[in-house]
Write a structure and sequence with these properties.
This protein is α/β, with parallel strands linked by helices. The protein is built from 28 helices and 25 strands. Keywords: Cobalamin, Cobalt, Disulfide bond, DNA synthesis, Nucleotide-binding, Oxidoreductase. Catalyzes the reduction of ribonucleotides to deoxyribonucleotides. May function to provide a pool of deoxyribonucleotide precursors for DNA repair during oxygen limitation and/or for immediate growth after restoration of oxygen. Its cofactor is adenosylcob(III)alamin.
């Protein structure tokens, strides 16, 4: 654990303050963290499975052997810096982590954070170990920017402001554009802009905020399509007492009607479709900021006044319940607007003397002052669940300390998109520590997501995390001073700390794991209050729950943020290519925790693999079904189950929670009203809903409802055996001499005269040697399998990317690098004997094809016959009698390419999620955003 050191031996920081003493957590003195990891080389080739095009390729990257294919692909393609194919390109996770960590350590030393150089070294080693072992991750901008020649932007979340002047509105457009260009998102409140029912100083009528939203939306759409790191994300908020609130509420619902009309007229209105750009307001999330006064008027069916922006006087009186119904109706139609609870937000505000909290970032988890930003980091909770089912409280506390220290250091060196944002962030130093894998942790410990036990465990962990974060913040304040805005807000900040501590005292634990965490959390809050009273606090905010989209994949998390597990089946990519559908590894762990024997566990897992759910699984007790409830599937968690979980953890967060409450298609407007109302009563800060299939502009996969198999006449079973097709005595053959890393050999590939490859013989090593004998045996096995009808592409899938020595450079211009002799042989066979379409699906292209692809040309054109050849073929062919066209049949369902598509294949219906615009994979929910498992792209700002 890190602690403030006393005594004259401590290195002095600024103002003569003492530095932090750092203890080791996971590392060993005298041993670098990298030396305790087994590293291996991987090839990253990412394709768009719809057209076979290669989106990204980098071979020979270096990662720990326990990192999944997905994590390696995403980190390599998203976070490695430098032009691909140049020596400057990063090629190892070591380079990436070192680039980031060294900036944190150097800055910490320069600004007096550490008591000694030895403490700085321990800090460096622990941070390196934690990142390499996927124990936590900083948000994406840190990986994009820190340690590069680019501005050192570390924040993913921004809040802007806009006043009732044209100059301010134009500044809003500009500032938003700068933030979008950097791949981040921003939110703001438009309520200062006078309504369309008020007059301008010139005597004319004002345009109103909704009209200015149109221009900002068009700007966001343009920048989004301009090649930013990821799609633009934005939040627009309007106060419920604004005279234009009804128009704001209806804005996106009206556009959804337009989408339906255009779709029915034959226009392409899918997300990313060529005609969707004609629809307005689609680039922002909209939220209504409601007050307690308004919600009480809804309760009592009372009236509510809408106030002019110029003088604050009521210019229109409405029925509160009618406006509340209008919000729910619009959300039922198009999922917007969401709702933010203004008085709750500002009751937990640590800086009210500086200004109110009026808005949030696009995903609604960061809520703070106008013109501010927040950098995020998320802990992988499953890394702290021991094999015996207990939670590693001690190391979780130490890890939280480590992360908060690093996050605060980052504000010291960070760059910001505007001067106003930089000034506010440096003065208030807002942080956003959170976590991922809560859903997997709950299942692994035998807790249902929607249960008192599950909520108690989530609450105690969240309370412990935030208590440690603020205690560490107070300790850092004792070393380098509190945040600049603390003095004027000290009483308010300490009041909020007491509110957190009081909420912790109200947690009711149910079992031993909760009690141990709660006891630690209580101790941390006591120390926090004591240290904060003495030193003040370094950070105005400390914690929130972000979507953890891309970084969740980087950490190989099963679940994102606060979300439950998506489903019990997962799509898993395999090293060396290929994929498979597997039952979540959390399931057998949960079954063991619940007391099932190994034989029972195997039977239940086998049942889930076949059916996709646990209902009627052999030997599984019905009272345990709820432990395996998921966000989607046969036993989906109810909407209020999601709301109750949010309410359990909200009192222990500085900010809010990025989460969408998913509702079934048959949900009513009244159901949405109930969710919005209960969110207010339960003390949430913000809430958004999504009703399945409420939006037209969402591309869906081709998975339709499963057809019932037709009944067939019973017949005696017939055993069908494959028949061997031998090659003729005289057959065409191709001999290839090859060299892989200096090891030379020969390959003879013989073909049927008219039907592809049928025989392969390999010569490698001296005649009579063991290696030569093994290669002869291997050649015969492959040859016989080809003659029995095993497709060549099956062998290519199995043996390409296989890794063993010799490996390295080859003398083949089409295959410059090979990970083994087998990798080279089967790539060469694919190039010589498979058609272009099959090879492109396998990611195997010739040098000429790759060159064309790099130049933006279609490599398939190399294989298209020219017109003269086609005429010759027609002239030589016999007369063709055209048969009647067969009746159209339903297209065969495509193989799943993501976990969501696996769920679709099990449920027999499409999931309401967008397709990734980069690689075509169906995305999965991550908080209030979506993330692509294929390439890591997100629809939000995590």
């Amino acid at each position: 654990m890190t602690e403030t050191v006393s005594g004259s031996a401590a290195k002095r920081g600024k103002g003569g303050r003492k530095g932090l003493k750092v203890e080791r957590i996971f590392t060993t003195p005298g041993v670098h963290p990298y030396d305790e990891i087994t590293w291996e080389r991987r090839d990253v080739v990412m394709t768009n499975w719809r057209d076979g095009s290669v989106n990204f390729e980098q071979r020979g990257v270096e990662f720990p052997d326990f990192w999944s294919v997905n994590a390696v692909n995403i980190v390599t393609s998203k976070y490695f810096r430098g032009a691909v194919g140049t020596p400057q390109r990063e090629h190892s996770l070591k380079q990436l982590i070192d680039r980031v960590v060294r900036m944190y350590v150097t800055t910490g030393v320069e600004h007096g954070y550490f008591a000694s150089d030895a403490d700085a070294e321990i800090f460096e080693h622990e941070l390196t170990h934690a990142l390499a072992h996927q124990m936590f991750s900083f948000n994406s901008p840190v990986w994009f920017n820190v340690g590069t020649n680019a501005p050192q932007q570390v924040s993913a979340c921004f809040i802007l402001s806009v006043d009732d002047t044209m100059e301010s509105i134009l500044d809003w457009y500009k500032e938003e554009g700068i933030i979008f260009k950097g791949g981040s998102g921003a939110g703001l409140n438009l309520s200062r802009i006078r309504s369309s029912k008020e007059l301008l100083s010139s005597g004319g009528t004002a345009s109103g905020p909704v009209s200015f939203m149109r221009g900002a939306d068009a700007s966001a759409g343009t920048i989004k399509s301009g090649g930013a790191t990821r799609r633009a994300a934005k939040m627009v908020v309007l106060d419920v007492d604004h005279p234009d609130i009804a128009e704001f509420i209806d804005t996106k619902a009206r556009e959804e009607d337009k989408i339906r009309a255009l779709r029915d007229a034959g226009f392409d209105m899918d997300l990313g479709g060529k005609d969707i750009n004609s629809v307005q307001y689609q680039n922002a999330n909209n939220s209504v900021r409601v007050s307690d006064e308004f919600m009480r008027a809804v309760e009592t069916d009372g009236e509510f006044g809408l106030r002019g922006r110029l003088n604050g006087e009521v210019i229109e009186t409405i029925k509160a319940k009618d406006l509340f119904r209008r919000m729910a109706q619009a959300a039922w139609e198009c999922a917007d607007p969401g709702i933010q609870y203004d008085d709750t937000i500002n009751d937990w505000h640590t800086n009210p003397e500086t200004g109110r909290i009026t808005a949030s970032n696009p995903c609604s988890e960061y809520m703070s002052l106008d013109n501010s930003s927040c950098n995020l980091a998320s802990i992988n909770l499953l890394k702290f669940l021991r094999a015996d089912g207990t939670f590693d409280v001690q190391n979780f506390v130490k890890m939280t300390e480590l992360i908060i220290t690093a996050m605060d250091i980052s504000i010291t060196f960070a760059d910001f998109p505007t001067e106003k944002i930089g000034e506010t962030t440096r003065d208030y130093r807002q942080l956003g520590i959170g976590y991922a894998n809560l859903g997997a942790l709950l299942m692994a410990t035998g807790h249902a997501y929607d249960s008192e036990g599950g909520r108690s465990l989530a609450a105690t962990i969240t309370s412990l995390m935030t208590g440690v974060a603020y205690r560490r913040s107070a300790e850092i304040a004792g070393v380098v001073g509190p945040y600049a805005g603390y003095a004027r807000n000290a009483d308010a900040h300490k009041r909020v700390m007491r509110k957190h501590a009081a909420a912790n005292d109200e947690i009711r634990t149910l079992d031993e794991i909760d009690k141990a965490i709660h006891a630690a959390a209580t101790k941390q809050w006591q120390e926090c209050l004591k240290t904060g009273e003495k030193n003040g606090y370094r950070n105005a905010q400390a914690s929130l729950l972000a979507p953890t989209g891309t970084i969740g994949l980087m950490m190989d998390c099963d679940t994102t943020g606060i979300e439950p597990d998506l489903a019990l089946m997962k799509f898993k990519k395999l090293v060396g290519g290929g994929s498979m559908q597997i039952v979540n590894l959390t399931v057998p762990r949960a079954l063991a925790k619940l007391g099932y024997q190994q034989e029972q566990i195997e039977a239940i897992v086998e049942y889930i693999a076949e059916h996709g759910h646990v209902v009627d699984a052999p030997g599984l007790r019905p009272e345990h079904y709820e432990v395996f409830d998921c966000a989607m599937g046969e036993r989906a968690i109810s909407p209020m189950g999601h709301v109750r979980m949010m309410a359990a953890v909200q009192p222990f967060l500085s900010g809010a929670i990025s989460k969408t409450v998913n509702m079934p298609e048959q949900a009513t407007v009244e159901d949405i009203e109930k969710v919005y109302y209960e969110g207010w009563k339960l003390g949430l800060k913000a809430l958004a809903i999504y009703r399945d299939n409420c939006k037209v502009g969402q591309p869906l996969s081709a998975a339709g409802k499963k057809e019932e198999p037709k009944a067939e006449t019973a017949a005696a079973p017939v055993e069908v055996r494959p028949v061997r097709k031998r090659l003729p005595k005289q057959r065409p053959a191709m001999v290839t001499r090859f060299s892989v890393a200096g090891a030379e050999g020969y390959m003879t590939a013989s073909s049927y005269p008219d039907d592809g490859l049928g025989e392969v013989f390999l010569k490698l090593g001296k005649q009579g040697s063991t290696l030569a004998g093994v290669m002869d045996a291997f050649s015969m096995a492959i040859s016989i399998s080809l003659q029995y009808g095993v497709p060549l592409e099956t062998w290519v899938e199995k043996f390409t990317n296989m890794r063993f020595e010799p490996a390295g450079m080859t003398d083949d211009p089409d295959i410059r690098m090979a990970t083994s002799v087998m990798d080279y042989i089967f790539r060469r066979l694919a190039l010589d004997h498979l058609d272009f379409e099959t090879r492109s699906e396998l990611g195997i292209l010739s040098a000429a094809e790759r060159a064309m692809q790099a130049n933006g040309e279609d490599p398939a054109s190399l294989h298209a016959p020219d017109a003269e050849t086609e005429r010759e073929i027609l002239a030589q062919s016999a007369e063709i009698t055209r048969a009647p066209a067969p009746a159209p049949s339903a297209p065969a369902p495509s193989a799943p390419h993501s976990s969501v598509e696996v769920i679709e294949s099990r449920q027999g219906r499409t999931a309401d999620a967008p397709l990734c615009l980069t690689c075509g994979t169906k995305m999965r929910p991550a908080g209030s955003c979506y993330v692509c498992e294929g390439c890591g792209s997100t629809s939000g700002c995590s």
